[in-house]
Amino acid sequence: MEKSKWIKQICFDNSIQILLCDHFIHPTVNDCVVVGHSSLRLIIMKSNNIIEIARYNHSKPIISASIVHRSNHIEICFISGQLLYFAAPTLKGFNISEPVPLNFTYSSVTSNALLICLYPRNSSLTFYDHRITKNFINFDLAKNSKVWSCAFMGENLASLEFQNVFRVKIYNTKNLNYIRCVATYSINYYTPYRIISVPSHNSFYVLAESTIFHIQSSEKGWIFNKHSIDIRRSDPLLVDATPCGVRLLVLSADGLVLRFDGHKFELVAELNGATLLSSLSISRFLITLESCRLSMLDRDMLPLDEITYANCIHSSYTQGNFTVASQNSIYTAFYDYGIEVIKYADLRLKMKPIFYTINNFLFILYKDKTVIIDSEFRDVTPSAIKKLTFERIHANSQNSFFGLTSDKITVFEYGSIFSFNEKSTHSAHRLNTLYTTMMKSLTSFFYTSSTLIKQNKKDFDSEIYAISVGNDICLSFRDGLIYIIDDEFYTRKKININHDIFSIISTERQIMLGSDTGEIVIVNYNLEIISEQSIGISRVYLTNVGNKVAASCENSYYHITEKGIKKLPPDFRYFSPFGNNETFIALLKVASKSRNYNLLQIQFTEQTLGFHHKINLELNQQITKINSAEQNADYVCCASKSTLLWSHGNTLFNLLENEEAKSINEWRANHSNKVVQFWVVCTKKGDNEGRLLIFLLNRKESKFKPLLQKVFNAPLVAFTASSHRLAFFVTNDTITGISLETGSLIPKAKSNAKITDVVAIDSSQKYIAALADQRKFSLFEIISDMELKFLSVVDRPAIYGRIKIIGNYVAVSSRVTPSLTIYTISENPQTVREIMLLSPVTSIFDVKGKIFCNCICGEMFMINCEDQEIAELDTSKLFSFSHSAYMLND
């Protein structure tokens, strides 16, 4: 399985990954170590209070952790990258020892008093003797077997392995030179995923969907028993277990705590949002709620104390806008680009003009007019040139400049206009001298007293591609030739750099060259190459004012400094140095289909770049669903499963009593000959009723009321919009298509194959993917509005949680492990990639044909479906500058 790279994180490690309970400080002190995704926190329980007394922040993600028993104290061992660390908790902090290098990237670690076991690794287990030999030993398993979970109990190691079927194998590790399997048990018809060791019971417990397999050590050997739990709830998956005296407490995904005495299960409590459960003693327990709250409970499962961290449970992404829900709060995530807006002005453009910045002035060249704007964004265009058009501008000021087209040179000087018929393709100037090129010819003109005097002309051997004028003249030619010549057109130096150069600028100390294949080459005035860097695959254009330099390539813009090249936000439509200070000018697109732009004067700050989040809304109820609009920052969320809230005006809509929202989706649908924004909510009321609610929002009046509603005799579990004209929902184990084109709800295609226990659905214009409870999903092809073709069912050993169609691929994530699997969509789906992330995935999005997924602690990953390596892209490009600037200044 591939391992991921840690790309970006919205907030710094505030979620709980694992609880390790023991007596770290003293045998009489109840304490535990909370392992976050990049931190360790030592917690003690005193007088029914939870107190954090020490914290260690790790510079990289922590993958897995376990308790290690040294000769005289207890430590934590944890994996980070390909290093194994040891941390000793103390009242003053964590003592971190020198890490041990690993020759493989492991995802899990477990340990006993003598050994550390690392897994998985290509049909083998890796043991590390951390006390005596300090050596690694690989123990080979059956060929092609995969290790899902391991746990020690004394010298015995239980391993959950999959090779066509699941087997639990128990190995005796007393002699590492002779590791032997002492027991084997097969598990059929279930998907087991976790082994929990309870030494006080002499037992291993295997969690498998809604079933526990109990493996107990006895004098006669190992006893194997199965115990199923009848949980008549929406989510019976078992997620954790912990001992309570001679009994076992079991936690379900729905938050049910059940007591198991070896024969039967008894309901003890319901803890909504609980994810981990640990026992401190027979009367004190620790739980995590939504992986962000740590709560201490008494014998009756009543709360005694609680501390809260932030995390990312529900999230929604649309272009430039990322909304995150955590417990009772909604956050808006944004990226600090380190750019400060000095001033801005609104600009409406039918077509994008040509921009030229000359010192403190911006020349805007339209097809039918010319506009000059000063540093205060005032129109200072002389009336004489307002109706003139140019293709190139070379100016000393707004009152003295050369304006050129392909066949004419115009000189404007303090209200007077003089035109001369001269053809040119490229040009540059120095004060009153103008240099033009035409094919292989270079010509210089001197303007004086209303006259343009031709001074010099020279024909070269090949076509001139670009020109720049500083102290000397720099020219580029076909086949990568670069010349530096003097004012008399004598060649001083030349070089061949193997790139065709179409853009040249000159600064005080160096010359920058932009190629037609995305390279920026920097040379000194001796034409010695200083550096070369690629920013794309197409032509690079360079601009400068003094030593301030900007570049553009493939509709992206870059700021070039001595420290390097910085890519600017994706919604910039123009960027150039401006004025004699440290300011720049930029054009910002307001909306994708709008003609409105913002003209910005900006400067770069020394702020730390990175992701931030800001609380958008706080409620007194837990948020259970959220979805963002496609083209603006609106969202609709659900609080406590039955209260809908629209972000605009915080408008509320309450569902019926005992009714629960199962999904919230935006649908921009064809409705009475126009595309209208709707919000669609699928609900469940008991086991025999559900509603499809379609809301039309009135922004002016802040009204949020259902436009259409339809009642069904079964719950509606999921909804997906395929296109403007077609959407699908699931009820009674059937996928049903609908349309709103006529203004009313019109039924369309239905699935021709029965699908059971559907929990999620996604679609594109071509395919539908329906995720069933636990381990399977179905694929359909949309033949027409009235016909669906069943393709296949993928039934693999997994506990799936999220599903998303990306082009001709479908991505599914696990609920219980931080893994993502990508399949081809066909009648015989093939596994393309299996990727191990850092924490379970909470959301998957399609961003321009790539997978953008968000994990529970705020980590974000961009993944290409076809690449063999995870694309380590800068996820800042997912966020617009306009959105981030608004959040910073709000």
TrEMBL record:
Protein name: Cleavage/polyadenylation specificity factor A subunit N-terminal domain-containing protein
Species the sequence originates in: Tritrichomonas foetus
